[in-house]
Each structure stands twice: as C-alpha cells, then as structure tokens.
Amino acid sequence: MEVTKSQEQQQHKYPSVIDRYFKKKYYLFEDRQKEAFCILVHSNRICIVTLGETHPILSKNKCIRSVSFTIGDVNRLDNKVSGKAKRGAQTLTATSPLCEITCDDGEKFVVPAGMKGQLIEVNEQLLNNPSLLTLKAFLPLVSRR
Amino acid sequence: MDVGFEMHVFCHNETTLGEITTTLVRAGSCLLCILRHLGVRSPHFYCRPWKDIEAYVLSLLPSTVKEKESTESNTHPFAIVNKPCTLCLGILQEHSTKEFFEKIKEQGDKEDFQYSSFIASLTVPVCAILRQHSMLLFLKDTHKSVYEDKEDTDIPSIKDVWKWRNGPVLGQVLGASFDQKSQFDILLNFLYPESDRECGFLLDLKPDIFKKRKISKKSKKFGWETFTRANVNKVLTTIPDNVFRSKFQCPPPVPAKLCSCNISICHDALYVAGRYNKYSRLLSQTPWVIDGGRKGETSVEELICTPIDQLFKPDEHRFSSSGREDVDVRMLGSGRPFVVELINPHKVKFSQQDLTNLQRKINESTEDIKVRDLQIVSKEDTLVLKEGETEKIKSYLAVCWTEDPVPDEKLEQLSQIQDLKIQQNTPIRVLHRRPLATRERVIHTMSATRIDDQHFKLHLSTQAGTYIKEFVHGDFGRTVPNMTTLLDMDCDILELDVESVELDWPKKLEEGEETTALSEKRV
C-alpha cells in the first residue's frame, strides 16, 4: 500500500487526533480572562478540559510542582462511575473546581469544569507527573449530558 | 361387530361396551371422543372414513337405545356438526374436516409460503383437561369395574388423535408430507373463551399455585394466562375426587359453542453464512442513523442482506459477524465471517448453486464489498461465529506517521517485541456507549516497513478486542504502552486495514472463477 497523494501533502500539516475528532471551545473566568481553558468537545459529546493557550502557566512557561484533586470538601479522586450510563458520577457546573495546580513559584490556579455535566474521570497521571500538563496532557474528562 | 380393525379397548364384553357407549353418547361425546374413552389406541383406526367409524359406534349401541334415541330427538344422535362435543370442543369435529384443511391451505397460499413438508403444533384449551377428568370420574361412577383403575393418561389425548387422523389427510390437501422433523410449522391455536372461567374454581381451591403472572418478555405469548396446562395438571393430582365432583359438573356440561382456531404458519429460521471483504473507507457495517437522520447511503449489512431477503422473503433478518471494523477501515484478506439469520423465511427451496448465483449477484452489485463462501448453515454452526470475536487473533496493517523522523533502530526494535501487554482504558470515541474500564490486551507481534522519514507501515497481530487506533496514538495516554511511548515521539495513524480474521469458518467452498479473481484483486 503506497502513501496516497493526499497523505503526502499532509506530511507537513496533518490533522492531529484532536483536529480529527474534537471541536475546541473556550471557557474564560469573567474577571481573569487570561486564565483561559480549552474544552475539547468530541462528536459524541464527551469533553476534555485542558489549559488554554493563553493561560499564564503556558504563556509564562511556568513549572508545575503539584496537582491536587481535593478542593474544599470535594475529592475528585473519589469519583466512581459504573455502567454505560456512568452512574454515580459527580455532577458539575461551569464553576465547579476540578483541580488545583501549584506552581514552583507558589502561585496557585484552580481549573474549573467550564461546563455542565458529569465527571467521568480525572487524569491521575498528573499526580505523579504534573509536568505533563504543560505538554499535551489532558485534565479531567467530563461528559456533557 | 365390525371387521378386522385392530383395537385395544378397555373391555371386550359386548353388553358392557354397549352400556359405556350409551353413557358417552348421552353425555355429549363426539365420535372420536367416544373411541378415545373406549380405549382405542391404534392410529389407523382413527383414520377410517367418518362413515365407517360412525357405523362401528352405532353397532355398539344396544338396539333399544338406538330406537329410543332416534325417536326422541329430531337430529341423529351423531350429528357431528350440530352438537359441540363436551370433551374436544369441536377440535375432533369441525376442525377435523376437509373444509378446515382447505382454510389452512388458503392461508399458506395467501402468505406465499413454499414448503414440501410440515409439522402441526396444536394448542388445546386448558379447560379440556378438566372436562376430560370430569368425564373419567363420571365413568368411574357409572362403570366402576372398567374404569376404576384408569388414569387421565390412559385416554389417548386430543392432540394425538388429531394428528393421527388428520396429519396424512392435511398433507394431501397441502401437497406436502407430514414429517416430525420438518422445519415448517403450522400452529393451530384453539381458543375457547370460557376456558378461564371453567378453571376459575381452582383459584379458590389452590390460590397460591395460580398467582397471576406479570407479563414478562417470555410470557408475552400467553398474556395474562393464569391457568396453564402445566399447573392445572399438577393441581389435579392433588384434588380428591369428591372435592372435584362438588366443584365441577360430572359429566361435563355441554359447551355453548365450538372453539375457534387461530392458524399461524411459520418456518424455522434459516441461517446463511459467508465471509465479506470491505474495500471502501466510507461504508459502515450496519445502517447508521444519528439524530433521526440517515448517515451514509447504505451499509455492509444492507448490501449483503437485501439480495438475500429478496430471495428468501423472511419476515426480518438479523446480521451478525465475527467482530466488526470502523467505517474508515478496510477488511482485506479472506474476509470476515458473518451470518444472516432469516426469521420465518417464506421461500426455502434453494440449492448451493442458487446461493453461489446469489453471491455473484451481490458481488456484481457493488465495488465496495465482496462476499465469498455463501452457504446455508445449521443453527448449531452459528455458535462458532462469536467464538471468533473474543478468542481469535486478528492481523492488521496500519500506516503510521511520526512527528519527527524516526530512526531505523527504533523501527527495528518494534519487530523484536513479542506478546506485549497493554492496558487500554475505554477509548474516548466509544466512551459514550461503553462502560469506563481498563482492559488488558496483548500485541503478539509487530513489524515495521519504512515508507519515508516520517511514515512507515506497521503490521501487527493482536488479541481480539484490541483498539488499534488507540494503540498507535495513545488516546491521551489512556492506552499504555502505545506507539508514542515505544518510539518516544508523537505518533498517529493515517490508515488502517484488517488483514485477516483467523477464524476458519464457514467452510471454504470450492473456488469458482469469481473467488479466485477476488483473492488476486487486492493485496
């Protein structure tokens, strides 16, 4: 099987997994609009919350020390869903906090859900490897219902 | 007495036989039910012409009774059409006549069925059990010496007698043979509206056994049937005779009218199996409906099943295959095994040659799929299909892209890997319809062939149920390890083909011209 012509053309600009399956939507804090969050919406309505390109962590190249999923009296790590319908999921509104990021210089940022829905899973890899966030890692997975 | 009929009646004393027959006639029994209660067990006795049977029974009656009966009533004591039988409710009367058989034939023709053999399944009203029990009790009272040791089961059943007498005759009318092993079933559901009411007293006697059953999927056929043959039979053995007599009239009362009959005709399901190849990257396997609208003109299922339906004319079909592939994935090699279950096919007389012709027709209708080894298989054979879905090894070819030029050693390393265990979280693209879970899968072997700096072909063979696309791009790190982690750079999948489904079923048919052409067509 040879690489088809269209693939050759796309060698330099090939639609990534995100480009193929997701639409990007943005959520901004009203008072702190630089802290943007990019929500990747899959065609099946499942959403992934990530840091927006203009978010200070990315724009100022900050180093992340840790990520905590316990905010207030909610622990996102306690979220357990079962079955196709994802029963037992924690419900979220746009302002529900998903996690708190602590940077090397002490600055803290809260990541909001940015949308109404049920929490399916959080990216536990961030506990051991917080720097993944600055690469292309995803944050929590949220479903829009 | 009559000539050379073999019979095993309950007694051979002429006088006693005469008395018993009189009792039965007076109690409202029809001809065949009289024979049943006299203990006649040989099938071909019941097959004699009506006239002969009538003559025989008449001959049993003492002459005094014969005269009396004819003078006291206008109608002949054996007017089988006029008086509904208290025991069979007409099943061995009106529903054993040529007119009734013609009705059955008419229905079969109207529904356009084709058949060369048949079986008949009868459903007799439940109250018939009670009526027979009542008659037996009455006979025990009036003719103790003959009947005191007899059970309900000693009397040939209505169903058996119906089939003995009518099976062959119905066969002649239909032009088909009456065969126990036939897959073509004529269901005769005899309905007697008073049946439940007649059984009603049982509810008072044994309320816990006759709890009203909820309509579940299984009992949908029977609706609110409180009284079934099974539980009524069971209960009868526990009710003492005197209690029964007090609750139910012995002998049984004359029915208001004959029971009616619902005729339904149905052929057992037929199974057509084969293997299909898919060459299009725009074709879904099954009809794709989203948000009420249709996406895509057709599907693998429709391309295969529409011509099959045209030939077999089933009420509906069910398509199932040994696993499936995405819309944008081709199915190459010797194809994926599938089976089409045809529910109640109206046309069934087809040879293997007919199926080979059908296969050619399907293959000529489109370039997007090809079918091979199309054949009829038995129901047991179809179990093998699903085995292939979960147990067999599948081979794939993926065209992969890397963000940076990938060195030869890295590609070489891939070929060294054997039986790599991976953990796959439910891919995001199916997460809306599958539970969240982590599945362990095995990549048995891999080998990479370079196309250029950033592209290579990857052959893999994996355990069934492995998500290949997610293994290549990693699905946001939710499948580990993945090609991105193995090559230490971003990796993505451009194209995927299934090269083989290692299930050796259905049987490979001798390759005709078209199947040879098929295997040469694609890599």
Task: Annotate the secondary structure layout.
The complex is a heterodimer of chains A (145) and B (523).
Chain A: H1 5-9, H2 17-21, E1 22-28, E2 36-42, E3 46-51, H3 56-59, E4 64-68, E5 70-71, E6 74-75, E7 91-92, E8 97-103, E9 108-112, E10 117-121, H4 125-128, E11 141-143
Antiparallel strand pairs in A: 1-2, 2-3, 3-11, 4-8, 5-6, 7-10, 8-9, 10-11
Chain B: H1 14-26, H2 31-38, H3 43-46, H4 50-60, H5 63-72, H6 98-110, E1 117-123, H7 127-142, H8 144-147, H9 158-174, E2 177-178, E3 184-191, H10 195-205, H11 229-236, H12 241-247, E4 260-267, E5 270-278, E6 288-290, E7 293-295, H13 300-312, E8 316-321, E9 329-343, H14 352-365, E10 369-377, H15 383-391, E11 394-402, H16 408-416, E12 418-425, E13 438-452, E14 455-462, H17 468-473, E15 479-480, H18 483-487, E16 491-501, H19 513-521
**CATH homologous superfamily classification of chain A:** RNA polymerase II/Efflux pump adaptor protein, barrel-sandwich hybrid domain
Q: Give average pLDDT of chain B, whole number.
A: 86
Query: Oligomerization state of this entry?
Result: heterodimer
**Which pair of chains forms the biggest interface, and how many residues does each contribute?**
A-B, 28 and 27 residues
CATH topology of chain A: OB fold (Dihydrolipoamide Acetyltransferase, E2P)
Number of domains of chain A: 1
Q: Unreliable segments of chain A (pLDDT under 50, ≥5 consecutive)?
A: none
User: Tally the helices of chain B: what do you get?
Assistant: 19
From the spread of the alpha carbons, the general shape of chain A counts as: globular
